[in-house]
Design brief:
This protein is about 35% helix and about 30% strand. The protein is an alpha+beta fold. It folds into two domains: about 180 residues, Aminopeptidase, CATH 3.40.630; about 140 residues, Gcn5-related N-acetyltransferase (GNAT) (Aminopeptidase), CATH 3.40.630.
Length: about 350
């Protein structure tokens, strides 16, 4: 059977969705809607989705984007807050390993054409492919993350029974937090109102700025609304009390996974645990839709408190790596601030490897 490697276009969106929809390993990052989202958020970046076909049938994809900056060209698969990439191979591929190698070789040829300074593949925690990435992509450097997912129970047809099935795996402290929130008089709704999305953006900015983290600007939230279908592919959950928004949670639904995307809580309500109530509501909805996974996203190994919070919801650890190929070692002489400014939303290399970090 002949394997052909090409470049996926907008015309392939339906076929890509169909291929991903049937797999338990699919994440939103490989799909057309997320590509549209990234193109809106990163308008100066060049996208390229490599596609593998057997006898004309799509059997694999490898998404990537390019950023051109002061220190050369940087390629990520994928950029933006640790979005996952690397080869995604369909179960219907006749030779999965061979398909993965062919896709990575196509990426390698593109890197040579671009004369890239650095390239990073953020592995899929559901299918990390470490051996394939080490042998075919290589990588001078690696960075480590811990993926955390909740394996959701099958739907029972009863919301109450679905919640009970969830609670079985929660830590006692998590159960107590949910019960406390339930008794605190919060009204929980989901809404597509633009003002609630804007309110979530502002509350998120307040929360992250207080922690010294990287804030997702309002344009990111507007890109969500423009790229995903409300109620089908995303929801904004809101907990209200005393006429005020106490907490908001943006969840993305794709294929068989619900993505915990952006949470935000007003400080004065934090002790009442409104976010715990929103998470249970969203998890219950994910079960009703037939989702099999709740994806918390990646956690740094140093974020022990964040890891514990997620673990107490019955999460399973799925470690994965950032595989980094350094093609221009002059990048090691840069300062952290230089790279962040030159390549916003792209990963260049582990900052601990910089000569200036010594």
């Amino acid at each position: 059977m002949t394997l052909q490697i090409g470049v996926a276009s907008a015309a392939d969106a339906v076929e890509i969705d169909e291929m991903l929809s049937g797999s338990p390993r699919a994440l939103m990052h490989y799909g057309p809607a997320y590509r549209a989202f990234l193109e809106r958020v990163l308008p100066d970046a060049e996208p390229r989705w490599f596609a593998a076909r057997e006898s004309g049938q799509l059997v694999g994809i490898l998404p990537a984007m390019v950023a051109r900056g002061l220190h050369g060209t940087v390629v990520n698969s994928l950029p933006f807050f640790g979005s996952h990439g690397g080869p995604w191979i369909s179960e219907r591929a006749a030779d999965p390993a061979g398909t993965g190698r062919a896709l990575l070789r196509a990426l390698d040829h593109w890197l040579a054409e671009l004369r890239a300074a650095a390239a990073t593949v953020v592995a899929n925690p559901l299918d990390s492919q470490d051996e394939l990435l080490r042998s075919e992509f290589g990588g001078d450097l690696q960075d480590h993350r811990i993926g955390q997912v909740v394996r959701l129970p099958p739907p029972t047809g009863s919301s109450e029974s679905d919640r009970e099935a969830l609670f079985v795996n929660f830590h006692q402290k998590t159960r107590n937090a949910v019960r406390k929130a339930a008794k605190s008089g919060f009204e929980v709704v989901h809404t597509d109102q633009r003002d609630e999305l804007d309110a979530l953006a502002r509350l998120h900015a307040d929360n992250i700025a207080s922690l010294g983290g990287v804030v997702k600007p309002p344009a990111v939230f507007h890109a969500v609304a423009a790229s995903f279908r409300y109620d089908d592919e995303y929801r904004v959950y809101v907990a209200r009390r005393d006429g005020q928004t106490a907490a908001s949670l943006l969840v993305l639904f794709s294929y068989r996974t619900a993505e915990y995307f952006v949470p935000a809580t007003q400080e004065k309500y934090r002790s009442l645990q409104p976010m715990s109530l929103l998470i249970v509501e969203a998890m219950s909805e994910a079960i009703r839709r037939g989702c099999r996974l709740w994806n918390w996203g990646g956690t740094w190994e140093s974020q022990t408190g964040v890891h514990m919070f997620k673990a107490r919801w019955g999460s399973q650890d799925l470690p994965y790596r950032y595989h980094v190929r350094l093609l221009d070692r002059e990048l090691l002489k840069c300062r952290r601030e230089e790279l962040l400014a030159a390549y916003p939303n792209f990963y260049v290399l582990p900052f601990t490897a910089l000569e200036t970090a010594a």
